[in-house]
Amino acid sequence: MTIHATATEPVTASLLRTTARCLPTGVTVVTSGLGPDVHGMTVNSFTTLSLAPPLVSFNVRHDARIRGLVERTGGFVVNVLAAEQSELARWFANRNRPLGAESFAEVRTEGEPVTGGVRIAGTVGYFACRLVRSVELGDHILMVGLVQECGAREKVPQLLFVDGELRGAGSRPAEPPRAGAGAGAGTGTGTGAGEQ
User: Fold this and answer.
1) How far is CA 191 from the centre of its chain?
2) CA 65 to CA 43: how far, in whole Å?
């Protein structure tokens, strides 16, 4: 069955979300903050904007906790999740997880990004960024960062979000969430739960 809106009908949030799920996106955990005041959030709205200068962006709802930390500290880290990291995506989309450093207690990390935030171990890649602009657009805010450092591992399958499910690139759907582990990947585009 095909659902759509014509030029004479309004595009609802539900229809936009359903249609957006047709487009596979990478899954990331964006982190920001320092010491005990650190936060992470699952985001699938990450994209590169420019090679020269090296600019990237992601967007979140206005009331997302990560927004305040990024604006206060001036930096963030985008961790690009690998196919086997679906549990991390669910964890950082879970509204009931602990806040602050406690939410990273069982998360393997590596290095100390120059921009603050947390670099998660085992990811496909990461971008440590300095915030250069935030733009309010509709019910979300676009956060643009200048990449200060980045890196990637070769030949590691990425985690994708498509048709409302987490999937490893080129594979079947990722493991289903355990009871109480969250409804799915929270995203900057509002296609799932978990923004805070």
Assistant:
1) 11
2) 13
